[in-house]
Amino acid sequence: MFPGQNSLRIVSKFFALFTLALPLLFTGCAWTGRTSTLDPKGPIAQIQFDLFMITVYVCVFLFVVVGGAFLYVVWKYRERPGQPETPIPQNSHGNPLIEIGLIASSVFMLVIIAVPTVQAIWITHDMPDRPDSHLGAYYGGEFLSPGEEEEVLTIRAEGYQWWWAFEYPQLGLTTGNEFVIPAGKVVRLELRSKDVIHSFWLPKIAGKVDLIPGRNNWMWIQAGNSYNEWLLDQGLPPMQEGHRAEYENYLEAEVYDMYYGQCAEFCGDSHAYMLFRTKVVSPEEFEAWVAEQKQPAPAPDGGGDWGAWFARALGDPSSLAGDPIQEGAYLYHTKGTCIQCHKVEGSPSSNGVLGPDLTKVGSRTSLAAGWMDHMSADGGINAGKQYENLVDWIYASQDIKPGNLMYYGDNALQHIINPEDPDANPLTREEVAKIATWLQTLQ
């Protein structure tokens, strides 16, 4: 065996095994998964995807050229049987033509990437002002603040350890960890952090922007193309009204859906559990959703008079016995520490601001900032799973989301579920189940 022949065999075997194993690597890839950036569903995501692919093409070209030249040289000047003393090829130094050519080609490759990069940065920082995205053009509800008809929908996304609040200041409502936007409309997101640095990332619709304490960042997003953008994509002249049915079919097939996002900046113990969801709907569904969200929670006895219910519940708690909904509401407002941090619109005593707004918690498809899922296959609520999630989250949140303030904060659940005082009256799992039963009614 000649010198180097054994090494060549080893390298050949390695490349053969690598070629056979390469397809296995792709089995772990989900090109259209929940948080895939390779399945863009909005103009910002599409621009970023196109820029990524340009970079991929340039890198593949460089890999093929450089790798091909390397393999050619290795093969051409390999040590052959019968030629154990193959001379080393003559080296070349200081060739101006080669050096200038390499520099010029490198600059050219960078320009190919730089030009669309600058264009993409410009577009993402230049929010369109299209009349069809003005609130007055598609929202006809009664809850819009005066003077906002010519503005786009604004949502204030606030990051906490480890959950999200989404406020609609023009509509006077707030929701937690899930928000809704109309398809094909420009939406402005105001990004705020209440503690540490977070990063808002909704992969299929937009890229990442940081939430920094003391700094007011913003971004714009859009789910799906607007009508005129869709016409252009179809090769049709803009401003034609005869294709609305086809456009609606496009939205139904490709855009209306639940989209998944997360915090993309490490922010502490439960950073990986800081998720959120975005539901994209038609303008009509969005208007109906706003009207539903604006309704306060009914009193636990099914009536509208919270004051009368409180007077009866506090005066004679035994009158609630046998009704798990009313018992759960009573425990929520008294024995539990829930009202310190959470708000339930309508309740005169549950006005906390440190935790998510629970006014419509029963209508959300997840719990614990998107970590505990109870969405059914048709996009509705799996009531049985929701009940289990509520009980598990309230009773053992420390095992689900490490470090969460609902359990470890001052006067939090650790003091009433696992009290240090042996004579204390702990909150039992049965009582937590009653609280969960009441929370499910908040829809």
Short description:
The protein has helices at residues 5-26, 43-76, 96-124, 135-138, 227-233, 244-254, 283-293, 306-315, 324-333, 383-400, 405-408, 414-417, 429-439; strands at residues 153-160, 163-168, 173-176, 178-182, 187-193, 198-201, 208-211, 217-221, 257-263, 275-281, 366-367, 372-373. The protein is α+β, with helices and mostly antiparallel strands and 443 residues long. It folds into 3 domains: 5-124, Helix Hairpins (Orthogonal Bundle), CATH 1.10.287; 133-293, Sandwich (Immunoglobulin-like), CATH 2.60.40; 306-439, Cytochrome c-like domain (Cytochrome Bc1 Complex, Chain D, domain 2, Orthogonal Bundle), CATH 1.10.760.
Identify the CATH homologous superfamily of the largest domain.
Answer: Cupredoxins -  blue copper proteins
CATH topology of the largest domain: Immunoglobulin-like
Uncertain runs: none
Shape: globular
Q: What share of the residues lie within helices? A: 25-40%
Q: Please give the count of helices.
A: 13
Q: Kindly, what is the distance between the CA atoms of the first and last residues, rounded to a whole number of angstroms?
A: 79 Å
Number of folding domains? 3
Beta-strand level of the residues, as a percent range? 5-15%
Q: What value does the Rg take, in angstroms? A: 29 Å
Output the CATH class name of the largest domain.
Mainly Beta
Count of DSSP strands: 12
Strand order of the largest sheet: 3-2-1-5-8
Average residue-wise pLDDT: 89
> How are helices and strands ordered from N to C?
HHHHEEEEEEEEHHEEHHHEEHHHH
If classified by CATH, what would the architecture of the largest domain be?
A: Sandwich
Class based on secondary structure composition and strand pairing: alpha+beta
Largest sheet: 5 strands, mixed
